[in-house]
Design goal:
With 242 residues, this protein is of the alpha/beta class. The chain contains eight helices and nine strands. Bound molecules: guanosine-5'-diphosphate and magnesium ion. Magnesium ion binds next to loops.
């Protein structure tokens, strides 16, 4: 049984949002937790906004160990966690954290990954660029029906992982948020147990999105095709079940 949760928040100049995000974590997540905030550079305006809150919330500030960028920030976050359960959330208040406790319960039912899902009953996506939404939903829903991957929202970054899965997957992604898709696809093919719970995503109201659709789209397509090509070679028994 897992009894607590490690939360990873990659940040890039989220000074306007981070206080509200930490407050939402405290209010909405009953599961005992620790928080790691991963930043890229010492001048990031998140840092002066967080420092006064370090006594109030269970936060550790961690500098990205690799080249700048959200992918390496998340990777650094994964490496700081030794075992148990890891949750990735955004600092821009985009994911409704009310889903977290039920995601954690699922992990304790024996799942290795629990995906927040905007594209299942009860899930929603509010605001954001239309093309990005269309592509993400189409990819998620078609991959679910074509390969049997047990989530309709493979591109969502709001996911909970067991550290065991993270240690077992060699991450090849080199762009940005497609890393979450890579991990879920590879874990699925290895026979790990994956579940989804409904979640609501709302576009940010402060700060700027740094999502690079054009640059990252080919990387998402790569993992989409990888899942499709390898679907019949999937390990039938759950390598990581239990
Ligand atoms: N460390 C780090 N975090 C980043 C970077 N770019 C974005 N983030 C963080 O990743 C999360 C989501 O980013 P965002 O640009 O809003 O992506 P979107 O929600 O898909 O539009 C936020 O917490 C950002 O602060 C980066 O280059 N480095
Ligand atoms: Mg965002």
């Amino acid at each position: 049984m897992y009894d607590s949760l490690d939360i990873i928040i990659p940040v890039y100049n989220e000074g306007e949002n981070i206080g509200k995000t930490l407050c939402a974590v405290a209010e909405k997540i009953k599961t005992p937790h620790r928080i790691s905030i991963i930043y890229d550079f010492d001048e990031d305006n998140t840092l002066p906004a967080v420092r006064p809150l370090l006594k109030k919330y269970p936060v550790t500030l961690v500098k990205n160990r690799y080249e700048k960028g959200v992918l390496n920030a998340i990777k650094t976050g994964f490496e700081t966690v030794k075992d148990g359960v890891v949750l990735v959330i955004m600092a821009d208040l985009s994911d409704d954290l009310i889903a977290v406790d039920s995601m954690f319960r699922k992990m304790n039912e024996g799942y290795d990954i629990v995906c927040g899902s905007r594209y299942m009953k009860g899930g929603r996506q509010i605001g954001g660029p239309r093309l990005k939404k269309f592509l993400s939903r189409t990819a998620g829903v078609t991959l679910h029906f074509l390969t049997g991957i047990p989530t309709r929202d493979v591109t969502n970054s709001f996911k909970m992982y067991s550290k065991k899965v993270l240690s077992d997957i060699a991450i090849e992604s080199n762009g940005g948020f497609e890393l979450g898709m890579e991990i879920v696809v590879k874990s699925f093919l290895k026979g790990y147990r994956i579940a989804e719970v409904p979640s609501v995503w709302t576009d940010r109201t402060a700060g700027e999105s740094r999502f690079m659709l054009k640059k990252w789209l080919p990387k998402y397509i790569h993992w989409y095709l990888f899942a499709f090509r390898n679907r019949l070679k999937r390990k039938p028994s759950a390598a990581g079940a239990g």
